Amino acid sequence: MSHRPPAWRSPLRGPWLTSVFGLILLFGIPVLFVTGLLSYAAYNPDLSPVNDKTPDKGLLGFYLFSWPTHPVWLYRVTQGAHVTLGVVLVPVLLAKLWSVVPKLFERPPVRSLGHGLERLSLLALVGGGLFEFVTGVLNVQLEYVFPGSFYPLHFYGAWIFMGAFAVHVALRFPRMVRALRGRDLRAELRTPVSRTRPEPPDETGLVSPDPAPPTMSRRGALAMVGTGSAALLVVTAGQSLDGPLRNTALLAPHGREPGRGPNGFQINKTAAAVGIRARDIGPGWRLVVRGPGREVVLTREQVLRLPRHGAALPIACVEGWSTPDQRWEGVRLADLAGLVGLGGRPPGVLVESLQRHGSFRSVVLRDNQVRDPRSLLALRVNGADLSPDHGYPARVIVPNAPGVHNTKWVARLSFGRSV
């Protein structure tokens, strides 16, 4: 008589099915990790403390580089892929955990020092994987408030998880290859429930010694997981794509579509939500432009009289969503640097917002971002003045930058300052 719970007696469990799910994750998880690292690099955290949400990263920031402004769609693609793939892999991760759940509760829990170390790596793998997926989905969907900041928790969790993942792959890869070669995928996809049999017992302990009668074939299990992932793809991918799929993005994050018209594209924080009052952005608004030893104060009318330029750029958010290209009109950041004697090759700039609370009230942009001719202090979009929720009276728009670095309700631009 087996001591396993009835739910653990499935005849489908075994090295082959576990290895199929593992193979999918073997390709998907490194892509998630790399796109996540690129997302972190896009914030230019090595540039200034105000940009760095993970200040104690130490050697984990070894790969950071100056984030480029070309191509303008890079952050939109990498972050959209990161979030969409993370959601799509959820059914595969859950299926993989289901396939190995008897191993997680085996007795005795530790049989030797080597077995104990393997169990410890497994705990880091399973716990780290669940932590990364759960916190990522919560951040995207709920704008959640977790104990501590999302950025360091997700960043450190990713490194812990990937360390355990690398150890697990090194230990299990040969066994996975043998298991995949032991059964023919095409044959399994043709096998109905009536001819489904348990895998032969082996040293993995995944095969139940007392399997229950099959109620689903392995073909059915793979189809169920694949259908779940495909459904999540359909209701998620459109948030970062143009075209018909945008209408199917039912799981798009909490960004809001503020009606129709020139300003009718997605935002993630309203003026009211960050404490912007009508008098803050009324006739009394002033733009302060600072440089070494010089300061210029401009009204909006004076800013409007400066040479204006246009740029077609999207907004791409860390939560995975992005807008189509919007047509922005405003004053080049490089021209504003020239007002305080920093023409030619202007330095980076500290951008400060009027918002009273919430994250990213100020950011620092690199010199390459300031010098790009498409980097604007935008005053209008799609032929109309900015709405209050889109940053009226003036906002920054920079190619290939995370949305939170396109600061809204700009009050001060301090060129050559990093804090």
Automatic annotation (TrEMBL):
Q: Name one GO molecular function term.
A: oxidoreductase activity
Q: Does the keyword Transmembrane apply?
A: yes
Which CDD domains does the annotation name? SO_family_Moco
Stretch list, region Disordered: 190-213
The chain positions of domain Oxidoreductase molybdopterin-binding read 284-415
What are the record keywords, sorted?
Answer: Membrane, Transmembrane, Transmembrane helix
Instruction: Report TM segments.
Output: 20-43, 81-101, 122-142, 154-173
Pfam families tied to this protein: Oxidored_molyb (PF00174)
SUPFAM superfamilies from the UniProt entry: Oxidoreductase molybdopterin-binding domain
Q: Which InterPro entries match?
A: Mopterin_OxRdtase_euk (IPR008335), OxRdtase_Mopterin-bd_dom (IPR000572), OxRdtase_Mopterin-bd_sf (IPR036374)
State the PANTHER family in the record: BLL0505 PROTEIN (PTHR43032:SF2), PROTEIN-METHIONINE-SULFOXIDE REDUCTASE (PTHR43032)
Q: What is this protein called?
A: Oxidoreductase molybdopterin-binding domain-containing protein
Recall the taxonomic lineage recorded for the source organism. Bacteria, Bacillati, Actinomycetota, Actinomycetes, Kitasatosporales
